[in-house]
Amino acid sequence: MLPRENTKVVNIGNVKIGGNNPVAIQSMCNTKTEDVKATVDQILRLEKAGCEIIRCTVPTNEAALALKEIKQQVHIPIVADIHFDYKMAIAAMENGADKIRINPGNIGSNEKIQAVVDCAKSHNVPIRVGVNSGSLEKDLIEKYGGHVTAEGIVESALQKVKLIEDMGYDNLVISIKSSDVLMCTRAHELIADKTRHPLHVGITEAGTVWSGNIKSSIGLGLILGQGIGNTIRVSLSADPVEEIKSAKLILRTLGLRTGGIEVVSCPTCGRTNIDLISLANEVQTLVEEYDYKNLKVAVMGCVVNGPGEAKEADIGIAGGKGEGLLIKKGEIIRKVPEAELLSTLKAEIEKM
Ligand code: SF4
């Protein structure tokens, strides 16, 4: 059994994570939660893109109250992100949060943590126990050689989990995060052997769309590829919709999800006779509206090698001089004028 399947099942609103459930895709709003309209608009855009769980920050009472209104207008569970103030965690749960994310290390005394746990218990709300490498306790830094280590992060997370379990609650999800991809991977390998709570996986502060996608793909690829992880967030300094698109492609590439259109395109070379780079980008944008289909689409730069190289694609186009080819599973279907390549491909995708 994979470590993923060996985890307990946790219900976050109507979404189950852990056990045999699919790895769920999350993101986080970057709106002010107090601004109900902006937050609802963003969540609805994220839902459309494929987001399954959304996190909103709850730094004020107004934000906690806003959760109630937001929940009535969206369709996916909401996780309240809490820092420092235990009263916000309680207010968020009283206003319908489907899960809360806390770092017990910054909530304060055990009495305050107990108050949060008691409230979670009475509302049956799961708690995500989050530990970041940036806030690792000094004693754990010293214990492991004077610097932040995967071992230290894991020990910190397990201490906090035990604290909450000892308070009589085990409806928990664990997240251990580091912006150091290899340290983050190592930490997940270590913790997967030591707990049955589901794991929320992500590379924190991964950067812009470019660097964040590379770091997240490597990190999540290494972790999920070992059968570890039950829900993911790709963190990008970008529109959160980009996080969903990336998460879906990572899961699809790892064979953990089907659905959606995968675009394969050639890197171009001296044989390329059309503006393939623009065409490939146009196709990538075009296919976003056909997310309910499960297809591989090829965009190739020449009619000589293109059809053969696109053999595994369900449908594709290969560009020539002034005209191109429509190809299906590597077979040439017909010639198409260059200006009609995109519209022809769209029409074919619609038929499939
Ligand atoms: S498909 Fe044609 S244009 Fe594209 S890389 Fe291969 S040979 Fe070059």
Q: Give the full name of the CATH homologous superfamily of the largest domain.
A: Dihydropteroate synthase-like
Rg is 23 Å
Name the hetero compounds present.
iron/sulfur cluster
Share of helix among residues? 40-55%
What's the structural domain tally?
Answer: 2
**Averaged pLDDT:** 95
First and last CA, distance: 36 Å
Quickly describe the structure:
The chain is an alpha/beta fold and 352 residues long. It has helices at 36-49, 61-73, 86-94, 110-123, 138-143, 150-166, 181-192, 209-224, 240-253, 276-287, 306-309, 341-351, and strands spanning 10-12, 15-17, 24-28, 53-57, 78-81, 99-102, 127-132, 172-177, 199-201, 231-233, 260-265, 294-300, 315-319, 323-328, 331-337.
Walk me through this protein's architecture.
There is one protein chain. With 352 residues, the chain is α/β, with parallel strands linked by helices. The chain has two domains: 244 residues, Dihydropteroate synthase-like (TIM Barrel), CATH 3.20.20; 92 residues, Sulfite Reductase Hemoprotein, domain 1, CATH 3.30.413. Helices cover 40% and strands 21% of the residues. The strands form three sheets. An eight-stranded parallel β-barrel has the order 3-4-5-6-7-8-9-10, surrounded by five helices. A five-stranded mixed sheet has the order 11-12-13-14-15. Strands 1-2 form a two-stranded antiparallel sheet. Helix 3 runs parallel beside helix 4 and helix 7 runs parallel beside helix 8. The model has no long low-confidence stretch (mean pLDDT 95).
